[in-house]
């Protein structure tokens, strides 16, 4: 079982991203479930969503407390909440940011980091900081756990409120292509 | 993907969408709604299906839940297959027509997207709303998975419309964890559902029909004339319908399994109970995490099993007694509170089912998952540890699982 926690802010599509990712994983004949965290959703407030994937049926419908991977689709939400709470040793971080790896505080448990300047890409494509599909591309690039093709097919099946399918397909591709992956040795992460 | 074995058709959706899909597949004639968290997206899907022409039904967006169910009563009396869904405060506001529906023997199907009740203020999941109306005369089934939500809403129509039942049915699915939990499901083919449900025949016994005028919901009762006997006839009829519903639920699940290959347990599910020396009893979406905890405990050498209650009304007392008898201590995990007995309502029902069986087994009531609180595999590990150590039968204080979360 591989557990992913997504962090973002209301309006960026965090919950939808988890659903699209689940659909893409399932299309590749694995099992996945997605559950949003609950609150009075409003624009700008921190939002989380949970995704589990496995090679066999997933029965637990619960939140995630010990994630293997964090997808953070907002560059500043870490100031409001602890996005790294409970992460496992050797975890992966897929982070929307315009900063370099040297400028980021990396917990020792994180051994793989994918960085993507998702806000710049989103402003260029959508004129707004909607980063969800961009960061799905970044996740595919960083982890290889889902193919770009499966994500593209999942996007085709999705309904978008704020942008069209074509823009989102470009967003997915750019997120994938423009992500820089950094790997750290397990000693350094120990 | 191999060309020889065509992929099975599947969808990825949450429990609310699965329920809406089931309503469309059941070819419901009349839908009345009032949106409320966490049910809202369910009725939004229905509105969309109707707008798109995918579901040929009338939609009334009424001014409140009292009107919602009243609209459906009129529609059912006119012969329509009907559906609505609600949660928590919406169910409370619906209570007056809710009370009348079973007595009028109207086979209305309503999803309760379960939500804890006020007060204090909360918009999150819990079984307290459905549990608060458990003794009104509706059939109530609880779902564990998104697939089971879809299948059970369809099954509910076959149960409700069986002529020896003719009672309204609640299909309960957990607010939050199932309403918004997304998973892979296999929708049945339309012709399978058509075969399974047949043509609606819902007002053969009571109707608003100029061709066969009759008094509907007449004034009866009192202490003289035909009143008392008439009133008793109504009540005994309801009880007979509830009794027969147990068989109807069993038969409908069996037939559904035959047609689709999906065999959901109709009344209760026994999980790893054959050699169990103690067990836990669950209800709803908590069951998945509980089964994972059972498997882990088994790997550590604990002989523990699980009984999931699917049908809560009518209560499958004989099946419960049969499942638990001779298997030692048991713990019951409730997602709601029985204020009269300071325990969980399912716990009390299970105890009642075992009345007279000796020796009495040690037992423990657990309450958790209130108002959206999570019931994790770790919570069930602690439940299993506690139940495994129970020594004697007798009263115990309830364990509140999220008290330290």
Structural description of this entry:
- The complex is a heterodimer of chains A (190) and B (405).
- Chain A has 190 residues and is of the alpha/beta class.
- Chain A contains six helices and seven strands.
- In chain A, helix 1 packs across helix 3 (132-143), helix 1 packs across helix 4 (148-156) and helix 3 (132-143) runs parallel beside helix 5.
- The radius of gyration of chain A is 15 Å and the shape is globular.
- Chain B has two domains: 11-204 and 250-255, 3-Layer(aba) Sandwich (Rossmann fold); 268-400, Rossmann fold, CATH 3.40.50.
- Chain B is built from 13 helices and 15 strands.
- Chain B has helices at 15-25, 40-51, 65-77, 88-93, 95-103, 128-132, 146-160, 190-197, 227-260, 286-299, 317-324, 345-353, 377-388, and strands at residues 11-14, 30-33, 58-61, 82-86, 109-114, 139-142, 169-174, 182-185, 268-271, 278-283, 304-309, 311-313, 330-334, 363-367, 399-400.
- Chain B starts with 10 loop residues before the first strand and ends in a 5-residue tail after the last strand.
- Chain A binds chain B through residues 15, 18-19, 22-23, 26, 29, 31-36, 38, 40, 58-63, 65, and chain B through 1, 10, 12, 14, 123-124, 145, 174, 176-178, 180-184, 285, 287-289, 291-292, 372, 374-377.
**Widest sheet of chain A: strand order?**
2-3-1-4-5-6-7
Low-confidence sequence ranges of chain A: none
Structural category of chain B: alpha/beta
Shape of chain A: globular
Could you tell me which chain pair has the largest interface and how many residues each side has?
Answer: A-B, 22 and 27 residues
What's the quick description here?
The complex is a heterodimer of chains A (190) and B (405). Chain A has helices at 14-27, 118-126, 132-143, 148-156, 165-177, 186-189; strands spanning 2-9, 31-36, 46-54, 69-72, 91-96, 110-116, 180-183. Chain A has 190 residues and is of the alpha/beta class.
């Amino acid at each position: 079982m591989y557990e992913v926690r997504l962090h973002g802010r209301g309006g960026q599509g965090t919950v939808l991203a988890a659903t699209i990712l689940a659909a893409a994983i399932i299309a590749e004949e694995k099992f996945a479930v997605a559950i949003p965290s609950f609150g009075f959703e409003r624009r700008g407030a921190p939002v989380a969503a949970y995704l589990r994937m496995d090679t066999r049926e997933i029965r637990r419908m619960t939140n995630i407390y010990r994630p293997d991977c964090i997808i953070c689709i907002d560059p500043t939400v870490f100031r409001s909440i602890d996005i790294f709470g409970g992460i496992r040793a050797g975890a992966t971080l897929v982070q929307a940011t315009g900063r370099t790896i040297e400028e980021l505080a990396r917990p020792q448990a994180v051994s793989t980091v994918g960085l993507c300047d998702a806000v710049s890409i989103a402003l260029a494509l959508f004129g707004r900081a909607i980063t969800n599909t961009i960061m799905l591309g970044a996740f595919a690039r960083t982890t290889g756990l889902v193919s770009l093709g499966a994500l593209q097919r999942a996007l085709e099946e999705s309904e978008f409120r704020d942008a069209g399918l074509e823009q989102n397909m470009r967003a997915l591709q750019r997120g994938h292509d423009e992500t820089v992956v950094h790997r750290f040795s397990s000693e350094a992460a120990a | 993907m191999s060309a020889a074995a065509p992929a099975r058709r599947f969808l990825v959706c949450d429990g609310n969408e699965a329920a809406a899909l089931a309503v469309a597949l059941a070819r419901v004639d009349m839908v009345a709604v009032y949106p409320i968290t966490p049910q809202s997206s369910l009725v939004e899907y229905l509105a969309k299906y109707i707008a798109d022409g995918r579901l040929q039904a009338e939609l009334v967006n009424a001014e409140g839940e009292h009107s919602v169910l009243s609209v459906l009563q009129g529609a059912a009396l006119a012969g329509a297959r009907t559906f609505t869904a609600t949660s928590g405060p919406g169910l409370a506001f619906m209570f007056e027509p809710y009370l009348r529906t079973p007595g009028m023997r109207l086979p209305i199907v309503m999803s309760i997207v379960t939500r804890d009740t006020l007060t204090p203020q909360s918009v999150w999941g819990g079984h307290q709303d459905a549990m608060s109306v458990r003794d009104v005369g509706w059939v109530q089934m609880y779902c564990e998975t998104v697939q089971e939500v879809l299948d059970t809403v369809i099954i509910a129509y076959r149960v409700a419309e069986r002529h020896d039942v003719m009672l309204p049915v609640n299909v309960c699915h957990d607010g939050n964890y199932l309403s918004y939990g997304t998973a892979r499901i296999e929708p049945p083919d339309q012709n399978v559902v058509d075969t399974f449900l047949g043509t609606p025949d819902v007002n053969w016994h009571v109707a608003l029909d100029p061709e066969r005028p009759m008094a509907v919901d007449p004034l009866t009762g009192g202490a003289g004339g035909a009143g008392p006997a008439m009133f008793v006839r109504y009540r005994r009829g309801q009880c007979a319908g509830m009794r027969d519903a147990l068989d109807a639920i069993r038969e409908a699940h069996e037939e559904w399994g035959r047609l689709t290959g999906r065999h959901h347990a109709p009344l209760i599910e026994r999980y790893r109970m054959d050699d169990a020396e103690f067990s836990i009893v669950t209800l709803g979406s908590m069951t998945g995490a509980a089964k994972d905890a059972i498997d882990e405990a088994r790997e550590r050498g604990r002989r523990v099993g699980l009984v999931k209650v699917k049908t809560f009304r009518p209560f499958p007392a004989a099946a419960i007694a049969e499942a638990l008898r001779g298997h030692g201590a048991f713990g019951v995990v409730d997602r709601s509170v029985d204020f009269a007995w300071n325990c969980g309502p399912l716990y009390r029902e299970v105890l009642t089912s075992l009345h007279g069986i000796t020796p009495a087994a040690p037992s423990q009531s657990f309450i958790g998952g209130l108002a959206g609180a999570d019931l994790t595999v770790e919570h069930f590990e602690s439940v299993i540890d506690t139940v495994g150590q129970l020594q004697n039968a007798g009263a115990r204080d309830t364990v509140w699982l999220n008290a330290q979360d």
